[in-house]
Amino acid sequence: MAENGRQAPKLASFHAPLSSETARFLVDSVDAFLFDCDGVIWKGDKLIDGVPEALQTLRSLGKKLVFVTNNSRRSRGKYAKKFLSLGLDVSEDEIFSSSFAAAMFLKLNNFPQDKKVYVIGEEGIVEEMELAGFTCLGGPEDRDKSVQLKSNSMVEHDKSVGAVVVGLDLHVNYYKFHYATLCIRENPGCLFIATNRDALGHITDTQECPGAGCMVAAVCATTEKEPVVVGKPSPFMMDFLVKRFQINTSRMCMVGDRLDTDILFGQNTGCKTLLVLSGVTSLSTLEDPSNNIHPDYYTSNLFSIVELLNK
Amino acid sequence: MAENGRQAPKLASFHAPLSSETARFLVDSVDAFLFDCDGVIWKGDKLIDGVPEALQTLRSLGKKLVFVTNNSRRSRGKYAKKFLSLGLDVSEDEIFSSSFAAAMFLKLNNFPQDKKVYVIGEEGIVEEMELAGFTCLGGPEDRDKSVQLKSNSMVEHDKSVGAVVVGLDLHVNYYKFHYATLCIRENPGCLFIATNRDALGHITDTQECPGAGCMVAAVCATTEKEPVVVGKPSPFMMDFLVKRFQINTSRMCMVGDRLDTDILFGQNTGCKTLLVLSGVTSLSTLEDPSNNIHPDYYTSNLFSIVELLNK
């Protein structure tokens, strides 16, 4: 099978371990690498071994690098600082977080500036909303609130809330679920936006913890509505990437550690896909008969690309 | 149509407003009335008008009264006190709460006494579990806990937890979701029990708030598992009622304000069903073409039974 007129090694129709030959082919056939962060670049706050060398190698080959994360806890600015603190030189423009995607979704849909956004989530969402010119309620501000049980007491919600954005929230509480439910159920036309629906994720390097999917499912249950999802695997973020970098998705490779978000996102948008086993997916999960999401290639971690290219 | 040899008025094949004639027929044809509490007996902590008279009338006609509530916040003992505080003389034996049902489910399934139960929920669940001889973790004890974000920090969970019970929890937090998820995902054979899946309920008399369905959905999302439901509309509680009172379900009438729990529970177990409009269901919801759960009868509130019988 040939691509761009050059002879290619056997291209995987089903996941294949990355080899020296396919690594070279992959690098030659794409112009941009899209990376998930948690489980690919770092675990919690710990850099994964060999990542700086891998990114440096790909940059030196002239590849565009883009970081696409479902984690909504930080804004793009804060992510750039996290990269820097780990010794990685990545600019804000190279980062696409689901917090940013939520703000862009509202902007693209001409969300009125006089409407407010209620947030179940952390600073990242609030910061991106404010950068986009929107006014937020909830989020970190409501972390210590509770519902009063006295007779006649009720939570008065703001009728000008026109969107509820739900993302990962380590300080989620009953009050926030109640407030979000009131807005979605009672404010006509109120949007319900999920940054993503990941079941689990790495908050620290040692253990998987509930992801945004936990909070999103809770609000789905109380509102009996389904959200618009802006993070992976929804193709929403790809629209920006394509416009920003003017690269066709067939010339991109999505690298991630999750089948149901990263690899599905890559496949949904026409990218090549590479699964790394340094995060939540094990080889046995990949090869389990119940799995029906198959990347083009898989490899142990990002650094193995460098090793394979140098062989 | 005749029942028990006596001539009956037209029996509803589709919901019919309760009339003098059908009220008399209903009272004559059943031996026990099963009542939901929230929206039928009270709203939050406020008694619904005319309830004492209605219960008194049915008792004076020799009817057995049973109170079947999905609300797991209280134990049966605490519910008896609540009835008393509202001026209603109801004994513990007449009360079946979903907190009690959860404990009975474990007992019937020979849950080992050396295994522990992790609770997302309030005192009612913990009390019923302890009355049944089980040891609990979580619940009110974990209300102020949070997940630490330091590198290398992790939540150590108890490997002897053999069941997670999830009910309504006004002090739910991320730590509880995380702990419950760890138990269900990592302890082999760990049961996942939901007291109920109500989307909303009355915590106070003024406003509907998220129900246990909110917390249950969150744990379903993180564990990618479905729970055993012991509350309405699951028929689990009916087994006790039938054994305790030795009354055939065809001689029972389930009275409730919710179509998807109370009325469905009655129908699933072969009871007659009466919807009261004093709670969460409006006449327009009942008659909406999208509704496919139809009680035998409906009426405005419990007191209207008295009025119709006296006509």
UniProtKB/TrEMBL annotation, chains A, B:
<keyword id="KW-0934">Plastid</keyword>
<feature type="binding site">
    <location>
        <position position="232"/>
    </location>
    <ligand>
        <name>substrate</name>
    </ligand>
</feature>
<dbReference type="GO" id="GO:0009853">
    <property type="term" value="P:photorespiration"/>
</dbReference>
<comment type="similarity">
    <text>Belongs to the HAD-like hydrolase superfamily. CbbY/CbbZ/Gph/YieH family.</text>
</comment>
<feature type="binding site">
    <location>
        <position position="257"/>
    </location>
    <ligand>
        <name>Mg(2+)</name>
    </ligand>
</feature>
<dbReference type="InterPro" id="IPR006349">
    <property type="entry name" value="PGP_euk"/>
</dbReference>
<keyword id="KW-0007">Acetylation</keyword>
<dbReference type="GO" id="GO:0046872">
    <property type="term" value="F:metal ion binding"/>
</dbReference>
<dbReference type="InterPro" id="IPR006357">
    <property type="entry name" value="HAD-SF_hydro_IIA"/>
</dbReference>
<feature type="binding site">
    <location>
        <position position="36"/>
    </location>
    <ligand>
        <name>Mg(2+)</name>
    </ligand>
</feature>
<keyword id="KW-0601">Photorespiration</keyword>
<keyword id="KW-0809">Transit peptide</keyword>
<dbReference type="GO" id="GO:0008967">
    <property type="term" value="F:phosphoglycolate phosphatase activity"/>
</dbReference>
<keyword id="KW-0150">Chloroplast</keyword>
<dbReference type="Pfam" id="PF13344">
    <property type="entry name" value="Hydrolase_6"/>
</dbReference>
<comment type="function">
    <text>Photorespiratory enzyme that dephosphorylates the 2-phosphoglycolate produced by the RuBisCO oxygenation reaction.</text>
</comment>
<feature type="active site" description="Proton donor">
    <location>
        <position position="38"/>
    </location>
</feature>
<keyword id="KW-0597">Phosphoprotein</keyword>
<dbReference type="InterPro" id="IPR023214">
    <property type="entry name" value="HAD_sf"/>
</dbReference>
<protein>
    <recommendedName>
        <fullName>Phosphoglycolate phosphatase</fullName>
        <ecNumber>3.1.3.18</ecNumber>
    </recommendedName>
</protein>
<feature type="binding site">
    <location>
        <position position="38"/>
    </location>
    <ligand>
        <name>Mg(2+)</name>
    </ligand>
</feature>
<keyword id="KW-0460">Magnesium</keyword>
<keyword id="KW-0479">Metal-binding</keyword>
<feature type="active site" description="Nucleophile">
    <location>
        <position position="36"/>
    </location>
</feature>
<dbReference type="InterPro" id="IPR036412">
    <property type="entry name" value="HAD-like_sf"/>
</dbReference>
<dbReference type="GO" id="GO:0009507">
    <property type="term" value="C:chloroplast"/>
</dbReference>
<keyword id="KW-0378">Hydrolase</keyword>
<dbReference type="Pfam" id="PF13242">
    <property type="entry name" value="Hydrolase_like"/>
</dbReference>
